[in-house]
Amino acid sequence: MQIQLGLKENWQQFTLLVLVNMMVGGMVGLERTVVPLVGTEEFRIGADMLVFSFIIAFGVVKAFTNLISGVLADKYTRKRVLVMGWLFGLPVPFMLAWGPSWAWIIGANVLLGISQGLAWSMTVNMKIDLVGPKKRGLAMGLNEAAGYGAVGLTALLTGYLAAAYGLRPQPFYIGIAYTIIGLLLSIFVIRDTRAYAALESASVVTPGEQQHRPDLLWVFKETSLKNRNLFAVSQAGLINNLNDGMSWGVFPLLFISMGVGLEGVGWIKAIYPVVWGAGQIITGPLADRFGRKPLIVWGMFVQVLGHVVIGFEWFSPFISGMVGSVLLGAGTAMVYPALLAAVSDAAHPSWRASSLGVYRFWRDMGYAAGALMAGVVASALGLLWAVHIAGLLTLLSGIIVWLKMKETRKS
Q1: CA-CA distance, 104 to 100, in Å (whole number)?
Q2: Domain map of the chain by residue range?
Q3: How far is it, in rounded angstroms, from Cα 370 to Cα 391?
Q4: CA proximity to 151, closest of 239, 18, 22
Q5: Cα 342 to Cα 380: distance, rounded to the nearest angstrom
Q6: Does domain 11-199+214-404 correspond to CATH entry 3.60.110.10?
Q7: What is the DSSP letter of 315?
Q8: Predicted model pTM
Q9: HSE on the CB side for 222, CA within 13 Å?
Q10: pLDDT tens readout for residues 147-198
Q11: pLDDT of residue 248
């Protein structure tokens, strides 16, 4: 069968990969509303840093898994790595639902980090492989919309289930369904896409030119420091997920302390990733039309506004949380597909999977950085100050992109 690049030409497999990524994202949504409260209310953990430890474990493990995911994909094929990711995820909902100690929750997040680093990375790489260079922004918008939309909807649903039935085990039953459906789809209906990357790579190599296949260390240095565009993108990704890591741990505790009920916290936690996810259906194509840099810079600044609104005394805690979360979600929706598309633009197809892995390493290290920062600041100054510090870091990151990055979109 002759293969062709393009979204229209490969819409069936693309759609199936969108569905799989909804299951991948839903696994993260399991934890957004309930797990911090499991730590404080069921296991009686009083220290903010210890409560946030599950996010630090998740972020660090996912970051390092992202780093090697591209190498594994080139060695074992994209499909095998995707299936491997689901196998690591199978025990997670059971451990979250019935784990007898906080150590089990930490262990579940180690496995979840590995699973997400492998599975989500592969859905990104496989969609980029299929669509080719012209529709990368749209492809990443649809991919991340599916994943983060599922994060938000699952966070909302677990909040209602927890309010109705208790914190455990009922809210985690959804995760059992996600893992089984995601694994079966990945084994039986998803096809590997490495041949599509090879086709694109051949199209950008001139006759007689040797393809450059650098090792991971070279790609790490190039993506992290040497290439100005890739450096700007990587630090923006880190700060973007620092916001998410901070909100993951801080928002349930902050808004419960302000008198917001569990259902209200579920809405605050859900609206951020839902707007983030759904918004990318629009912002992904905008990144293809207007360029990557404007979406990244202004998306970071919109997130700053979200931080300012949260805790604003003119509003009730619930309203400030909802408005702030909408702004955080909108800003992140502007940033996310543009960042992935910018990395794909700047990296050669022969080492693009590894470069995406390095970018995602820095981006998802932001989860750990956000939780660590939040724990330290909350212990010293209070939970609300963790939100303010994250906003300041986001402002500085947007300025760095503004000054350092050149547009990567090919006209």
Answers
A1: 7
A2: 11-199+214-404
A3: 11
A4: 22
A5: 38
A6: no
A7: S
A8: 0.83
A9: 16
A10: 888 988 898 899 889 989 999 999 999 999 999 999 999 999 999 988 887 8
A11: 85
